[in-house]
Design goal:
Structural class: alpha/beta
Number of strands: 19
Largest sheet: 8 strands, mixed
Shape: globular
Helix content: 25-40%
Radius of gyration: 23 Å
């Protein structure tokens, strides 16, 4: 009898838990603010967003939305609702180099410590209104990004939705920590997975995919010249092999490339995005437009490096690297290349990702163009344009509220007061 009673109690508890979970999942919320910007066009005054089951049910004039009587209403006066922001180039397993150099992070910081630190980075990022990150390489932390992604999805830590690239792939002996900087008899951890030849690079793609990579990233060039200058590292045949091995599985490919030659080779090989691209010529940008290759300019990284190591003062005379990045950005815009928001955060502090959008506006984009680069355009680059980067029926309910109007002043993105990801509220005023 006691055993039967215990089973009955457990069954009742299970039913209660299931009902509670269902009630939470089925919760309906109505979000209203002074303005709603959906991911395109101009903000709409008097609009609202209805959310149910983690997705957007309706968007439009508040007086025309059919609101269930049991809906929770969240009013956000003085604010603008925008889609959750997307950063297409992040490194949650890195922290600013003026705290610890890149070499010391890779060599001296335990992977376990870096993984725990990444949890904090993820929380800071989500609180800043970035609900999705494409994280492009663990930088010597093996497959720790797989664990961070799992922890976020399992509710162990709060953080943005992660699309990960695991280790990234480099040509053998062409990345860091650089062998020439250390004793030749030392075995030091490497910042990415080295490979040589078509067989090895193909194997590396398949290995990273098997471990959980959503994207494949490879380094098309690096500082391997006799004088320390950047040079292409892989052959175009190796690049094509990596792209083919990734694309056949449905995965897209990102290429780190800063020299014109390496960028052109990567584009001809079929990569989906070019990261940095500071040295691209007009002809190469025209090739990118022709091939539909997106450009991720990472404008904030040169500024941060200048501050750390070249005595640059923010707002002062740009460093040569900053000028080169600005030149490439302006050229890409003039040619009409698709530009997505990607900051290289990790080089600078997590949670300050919006610095990249401010740079985009400073260098010629309108606030609307910059916001689109971090929402609807970024969603399309990820191949998830129907789910991410828009406030539209059927899209995932990633909704952020900022003080004021970011279409009038992009600096409003610094003042995030409400964050929802997948229908769950993570920050309230």
């Amino acid at each position: 009898m006691r055993r039967w009673t215990s089973k009955l109690a457990l069954t009742a508890l299970a039913l209660i838990a299931t009902a509670a979970a269902h009630a939470f999942e089925a919760r309906t919320l109505l979000l209203s603010a002074d303005r709603v910007w959906t991911g395109d066009g101009q903000p709409h005054a008097g609009w609202a967003v209805l959310v149910r089951d983690g997705r957007i049910k309706e968007v439009g004039p508040a007086n025309r939305i059919s609101v269930p009587v049991d809906a929770e209403r969240i009013a956000l006066p003085g604010k603008t609702l925008i889609p959750g922001l997307i950063d297409l180039h992040s490194h949650v397993l890195l922290h600013p180099y003026n705290e610890t150099t890149w070499d010391d992070q890779v060599i001296k910081e335990q992977v376990e410590y870096r993984t725990l630190l990444a949890g904090k980075h993820a929380q800071d990022t989500l609180q800043a209104g970035f609900t999705t990150l494409r994280d492009l390489g663990t930088e010597g932390a093996n497959y720790a990004d797989v664990a961070v992604k799992r922890a976020i999805e399992g509710g162990v830590v709060d953080g943005p939705r992660l699309l990960i690239a695991t280790k990234a792939i480099v040509a053998s002996f062409s990345y860091g920590p650089a062998e020439r900087s250390y004793r030749p008899d030392m075995e030091i951890p490497y910042g990415a997975q080295p490979a040589t030849g078509i067989d090895e690079v193909t194997r590396a793609v398949r290995e990273q995919a098997a471990h959980g990579a959503d994207w494949i990233k490879f380094y098309a060039d690096y500082r391997t010249g006799v004088d320390g200058s950047s040079r292409p590292t892989f052959t175009i045949e190796e690049m094509k092999a990596m792209v083919a091995a990734a694309h056949v599985t449905g995965r897209k490919v990102a290429a780190h490339a800063s020299t014109d030659e390496a960028i052109r080779m990567a584009v001809l090989a079929g990569v989906d995005t070019v990261e940095h691209g500071y040295g691209a010529s007009e002809a190469t940008f025209r090739l990118m437009k022709e091939r539909g290759t997106a450009y991720i300019p990472t404008l904030t990284a040169p500024e941060a490096i200048g501050e750390y190591f070249q005595k640059h003062v923010r707002g002062g005379e740009p460093t040569p690297s900053m000028k080169e990045a600005a030149r490439a950005f302006a050229l890409a815009r003039r040619v009409g290349v698709v530009i997505g928001n990607g900051s290289d955060v990790g080089v600078f502090a997590h949670g300050t990702n919006a610095r990249e959008l401010e740079w985009m506006v400073r260098l010629g984009m309108t606030p609307t163009e910059a916001l689109r680069a971090a929402t609807s355009v970024a969603g399309e680059i990820l191949g998830k344009g129907k789910e991410l980067g828009r406030l539209a029926p059927g899209a995932l309910a990633d909704v952020v509220a900022v003080e004021g109007d970011p279409i009038a002043d992009i600096a409003a993105l610094r003042k995030v007061s409400f964050v929802m990801k997948g229908g769950k509220v993570y920050r309230k005023p």
